[in-house]
Amino acid sequence: MAEYSEYGVIDNESSKDCPKETVCIDAYRVYDSCGDKNCLQDLQAYFTETDQAVIDQANNVRIKDVDVITVYVDLDPVPFHRGFYGVDMTYFFEVTFDAFTAPAAVPVSVKGLCMFNKKVVLYGSEGNVKIFSSDFTISDSDNQSTPIQNLPRATVQVAKPIGLIAGFSTSTADYTPCCQIPGFITNRFGGEFVMDAEKKVTVTIGIFTIVQIERNVQMLVPTYDFCVPNKECVTSSDDPCEMFERIEFPTEEFFPPKVTDLNSDTEPCGRHS
Predict the structure, then answer these.
(1) Rounded CA separation 153/231 (Å)
(2) Rounded Cα–Cα distance for residues 5 and 3 (Å)
(3) Distance CA 51, CA 57 (A)
(4) What does DSSP assign to residue 257?
(5) What are the per-10-residue average pLDDT scores of the chain (273 residues)?
(6) Beta bridge partners of 61
(7) Which whole-number Å values give the CA distances from 72 to 165, 201, 220, in the listed order?
(8) What pLDDT was estimated at residue 3?
(9) Measured between alpha carbons, how far is 94 from 163 in angstroms, rounded to an integer?
(10) Exposure of 155 by Cβ count < 10 A (0-12 exposed, 13-18 middle, 19+ buried)?
(11) Fewest CB within 10 A of the end CB: N or C in the chain?
């Protein structure tokens, strides 16, 4: 039978799976979240002057890869709805294209920038306190950190985007960017973007996202034990062959699974229910 003391459960064979004590921790709790699947159609790709010159000579383009550079997230309280916040997200995508300038020519790789803005409303509760912290800042006097309002925090998780299709735009609509392009993105592409190009490229991208609002709270949780490592640190070797010997043979790379292997619900040979 488990034994108890003023500190909680005493560890023994009969109580090893029971909490030893209850402790208070400071952590972020998710108050609200949502998942979404979006097909972003006809996003204009912006190019630098060098890459736009390639696009102007191309007769066809194809998406090669899409990556999320960053997502700007802004949080604003929703008027007349206490505890609710609007999460304004601006996505910046780096899209790599193959531009074909002639039917039999080798494609030229160019990179473009695509942007997309989206807003969702989530519940984040309320907090009317100011938070002060004594966090130490290096190369600075040991002063308290700047006090902040007890607002929730919004986070956005984005899976690897899927480039669906690309083509030249025939629309005469104004493709003004949804926001100002940050300087670090301009530096990433190596120059300013052409905003008034005559030959425009539009893309369709599929993305999967999870948006959540978190708030820093104190929670009472059961604990089992300290997180003591249960394995030794192995010193890495500088010998590349020795490191290679520790890699298992990739059998599955030479013998890809059949569709029946992926979707089979049958039992192994010789086993019957």
Answers:
(1) 36
(2) 7
(3) 10
(4) P
(5) 42 62 90 92 94 93 95 90 91 96 88 94 80 62 54 91 91 73 93 90 94 90 82 70 79 76 58 49
(6) 99
(7) 25, 24, 33
(8) 46
(9) 11
(10) middle
(11) C
